């Protein structure tokens, strides 16, 4: 045995010994690292082998299943069965090989590392420790003073004991090193030799196994010659096809054309069309990403690169429409619009854009031809459509939805069948026309665009009460009398259920877009209609004249510390009124809820003319005589007379007076019909070509929407807004619909206009905003609505441009006002006669 470290040299503790020790220690450390790595690799190999065996077993089971399926072909069945048996035997040999590897490499080498190398490390620790102690004893002995005999003796004794201990431990350490160097040779060779013998056995067994299988394999090889000939023929065919496609690609490059896309509804894979498009994201930054789009199974889907799971853009193409987009900066863009969302896409060229638009249109037509019984499923599957007035995301408990709205709308005569084709039991509606539609006609209406028809589901969408009343005041019978007045005269055939989609689409376009069947009135008929509507408006306005006059407002009692002249000035313009919807304490809690930003607090403190109050409504409630004091004063003089719940008072700034106009037009008919609250006449005027924002230059430039405010009908305003009326258009006095609704005290209309984006900061020629007018009129409800809307808008601006619009509490309050204005208007009937001359 070769001695690695000399025993005599270790007693000298010479530099040669220390260098040898350092070299051995480094070698042992490296040996341990290599052995650990080898053991880990062995463990990985064994785990991979076990996984391979498991997968191989599944593969063999697949071969057996294929053999069982091929029972009619004896050659295939017997061959596959034999192959499966041989492969299973090889799996068993692999299992034995991995077991031997685990015993010879993993277990044996791990034992060597854990036992022998651990003893070496422990001996090294003791050697290092005693070496340090010896070094310290030598230093102490050398430093002992000559004149202190007891210190000399103590140092000498310690040095003698330390040297004896050092010799004992260093000899043991050197012995451990020599034994370790010798044992590592035997352990490593033993484990590796055992592993190699395991491989030898494995390959011998495999050779013997496949030697027995060789005759069968040679026999089958002879039968494959024909397959080689067939493969060569297939190769020539594929090369020819490759050459043909390459020539087509060259021609496309020469003509600067893109890859040709064709719509194929009968494609084998179910994909009618596919290709790359750029898609605009729905996030706040509107980024564009390239995606692989396809039309399959009446759906528009796309995939990202390197991902297989498709994302559905449109669940059913029957519910969508497609159109060009020329109003954005990018070229070749088009948009697919569904009831729930829209998707903006960009093609690489104009030809590709046209191809995709045509493919989507063809898919819609194909889906309707093949729809079968899917129509009802589609009604139940669709989600909320666009155009809803409710800006809140959640369903309000008093909003009508599902069967409730369906029953109310279908109860109107003529609404039980589709307005255009007569299909029974419709589930869709056009909210700006006021008609019911079947699934096919609703898809066609949606393709016309929202400027012609706004489609909504009767079963799934939320229906606001004013919108439901609009549907109930019109209906299929009223609209068909207008839009089909000349159909029989012209000999046009009305579609029937089951007619081809293109015929129904052509009829609907002729009916609503071209208005081919509308009977245009003569000048005399139009004049009589306008005069009749003006007289009807006068009858409505004078219906409250028989009521006894209300008593003058009493002089209120002054609060301590209040300004008497100011109180008198405010009270002089007031009539007796009922309690506000919200008491002062409730208003305090509401405004404290919304007052969450320093910006709003600064607005409070900066309000001119307001003493320590958050807004005009609370100051108004504080400075206006309380309802109890008013009631006491009224009781002292005479009992108050209630205001009529049906009609509002005439306009305080200008009375509605009919005069002979210079020219009669459909716009003038819409103007007076809006004031007379006649929705059928309004729909007729629009069908005759009336402009919804028509301006009466002879009457202070008022619009039909302003006249609808004068008429006091919430449904009339809703009808005009659904037909794209401008909610901010002003008259000659600079007053918009919100100004007029505020002056008349029409709380429901104020709520509606605010929901539809009315600008409450607009000032008239007297520099008065709606809020200023509401505060002067002491209308607590309107002040509350205006203040809450303003605060909500300021909070959204403070949160940033991408914040979600609409606070839940803010939406709940507006929802309460909406339902009250439609279902219980008496509660809001506390308007005041606004006097613009009042200081």
From TrEMBL:
Pfam families registered for this protein in UniProt: Ank_2, ArfGap, BAR_3, PH
Placement of ANK repeats on the sequence: 700-732, 733-765
Domain Arf-GAP residue range list: 403-525
Region (Disordered): 371-395, 528-571, 604-641, 818-839
A Gene Ontology term for the protein's cellular component: endosome membrane
Activity control note: GAP activity stimulated by phosphatidylinositol 4,5-bisphosphate (PIP2) and phosphatidic acid.
Membrane topology, record value: Peripheral membrane protein
The keyword Repeat appears for this protein: yes
Regions of compositional bias (Low complexity) in chain numbering: 383-392
Gene3D superfamilies the record matches: Ankyrin repeat-containing domain (1.25.40.20), Arf GTPase activating protein (1.10.220.150), Arfaptin homology (AH) domain/BAR domain (1.20.1270.60), Pleckstrin-homology domain (PH domain)/Phosphotyrosine-binding domain (PTB) (2.30.29.30)
Role description: GTPase-activating protein for the ADP ribosylation factor family.
Protein name per the record: Arf-GAP with coiled-coil, ANK repeat and PH domain-containing protein
Gene giving rise to this polypeptide: ACAP2
């Amino acid at each position: 045995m070769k001695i690695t470290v000399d025993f005599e040299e270790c007693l000298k503790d010479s530099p040669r010994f220390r260098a040898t020790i350092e070299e051995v220690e480094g070698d042992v450390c490296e040996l341990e690292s290599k052995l650990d790595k080898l053991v880990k690799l062995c463990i990985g190999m064994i785990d991979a082998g076990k996984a391979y065996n498991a997968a191989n077993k599944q593969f063999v089971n697949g071969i057996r299943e294929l053999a069982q399926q091929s029972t009619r072909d004896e050659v295939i069945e017997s061959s596959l069965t034999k192959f499966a048996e041989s492969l299973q035997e090889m799996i068993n040999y692999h299992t034995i090989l991995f077991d031997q590897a685990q015993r010879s490499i993993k277990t044996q080498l791990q034992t060597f590392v854990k036992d022998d190398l651990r003893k070496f490390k422990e001996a090294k620790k003791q050697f290092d420790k005693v070496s340090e102690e010896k070094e310290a004893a030598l230093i102490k002995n050398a430093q002992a003073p000559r004149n202190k005999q007891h210190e000399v003796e103590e140092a000498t004794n310690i040095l003698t004991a330390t040297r004896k201990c050092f010799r004992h431990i260093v000899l043991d350490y050197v012995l451990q090193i020599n034994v370790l160097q010798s044992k590592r040779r035997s352990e490593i060779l033993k484990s590796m030799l055992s592993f190699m013998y395991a491989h030898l056995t494995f390959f011998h067994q495999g050779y013997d196994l496949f030697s027995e299988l060789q005759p069968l394999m040679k026999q089958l090889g002879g039968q494959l010659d024909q397959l080689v000939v067939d493969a060569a023929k297939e190769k020539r065919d594929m090369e020819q096809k490759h050459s043909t496609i390459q020539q087509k690609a060259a021609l496309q490059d020469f003509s600067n054309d893109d890859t040709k896309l064709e719509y194929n509804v009968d494609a084998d894979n179910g994909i009618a069309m596919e290709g790359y498009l750029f898609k605009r994201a729905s996030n706040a930054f509107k980024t564009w990403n390239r995606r692989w789009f396809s039309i399959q199974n009446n759906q528009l889907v796309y995939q990202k690169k390197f991902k297989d799971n498709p994302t559905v853009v449109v669940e059913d193409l029957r519910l969508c429409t497609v159109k060009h987009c020329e109003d954005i900066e990018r070229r070749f863009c088009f948009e697919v619009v569904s009831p729930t969302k829209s998707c903006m896409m960009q093609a690489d060229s104009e030809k590709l854009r046209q191809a995709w638009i045509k493919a989507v249109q063809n898919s819609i037509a194909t889906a309707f031809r093949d729809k079968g019984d899917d129509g009802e499923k589609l009604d139940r599957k669709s989600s909320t459509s666009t155009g809803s007035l409710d800006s809140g995301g959640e369903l309000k408990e008093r909003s009508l939805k599902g069967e409730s709205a369906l029953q109310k709308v279908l109860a109107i005569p003529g609404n039980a069948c589709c307005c255009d084709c007569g299909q029974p039991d419709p589930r869709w509606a056009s909210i700006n026309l006021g008609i019911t539609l079947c699934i096919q006609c609703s898809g066609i209406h949606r393709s016309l665009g929202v400027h012609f028809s706004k489609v909504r589901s009767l079963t799934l969408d939320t229906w606001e009460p004013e919108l439901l009343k609009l549907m109930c005041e019109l209906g299929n019978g009223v609209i068909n009398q207008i839009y089909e007045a000349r159909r029989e005269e012209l000999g046009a055939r009305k579609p029937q259920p089951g007619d081809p989609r293109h015929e129904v689409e052509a009829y609907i376009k002729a009916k609503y877009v071209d208005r081919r069947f509308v009977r245009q009135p003569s000048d005399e008929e139009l004049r009589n209609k306008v005069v009749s509507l003006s007289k009807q408006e006068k009858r409505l306005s004078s219906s409250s004249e028989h009521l006894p006059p209300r008593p003058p407002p009493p002089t209120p009692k002054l609060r301590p510390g209040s300004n008497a002249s100011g109180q008198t000035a405010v009270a002089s313009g007031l009539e007796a009124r009922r309690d506000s919807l919200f008491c002062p304490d409730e208003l305090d809690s509401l405004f404290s809820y919304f007052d969450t930003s320093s910006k709003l607090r600064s607005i409070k403190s900066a309000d001119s003319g307001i003493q320590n109050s958050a807004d005009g409504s609370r100051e108004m409630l504080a400075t206006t005589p309380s309802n109890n004091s008013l009631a006491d004063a009224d009781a002292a003089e005479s009992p108050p007379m209630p205001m009529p719940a049906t009609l509002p008072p005439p306009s305080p700034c200008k009375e509605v007076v009919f005069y002979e106009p210079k020219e009669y037009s459909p716009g003038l008919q819409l103007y007076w019909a809006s004031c007379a609250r006649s929705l059928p006449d309004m729909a007729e005027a629009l069908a005759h070509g009336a402009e919804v924002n028509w301006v009466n230059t002879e009457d202070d430039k008022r619009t039909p929407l302003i006249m609808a405010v004068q008429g006091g009908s919430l449904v009339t305003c809703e009808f005009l807004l659904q037909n794209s009326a401008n909610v901010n258009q002003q008259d000659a006095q600079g007053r918009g619909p919100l100004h007029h609704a505020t002056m008349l005290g029409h709380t429901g209309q104020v709520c509606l206009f605010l929901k539809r984006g009315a600008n409450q900061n607009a000032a008239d020629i007297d520099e008065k905003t709606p809020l200023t007018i509401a505060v002067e009129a002491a209308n607590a409800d309107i002040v509350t609505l205006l203040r809450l809307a303003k605060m909500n808008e300021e909070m959204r601006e403070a949160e940033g441009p991408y914040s979600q619009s609409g606070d839940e509490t803010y939406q709940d309050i507006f929802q309460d006002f909406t339902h009250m204005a439609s279902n219980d208007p008496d509660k809001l009937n506390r308007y005041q006669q606004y006097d613009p001359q009042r200081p």
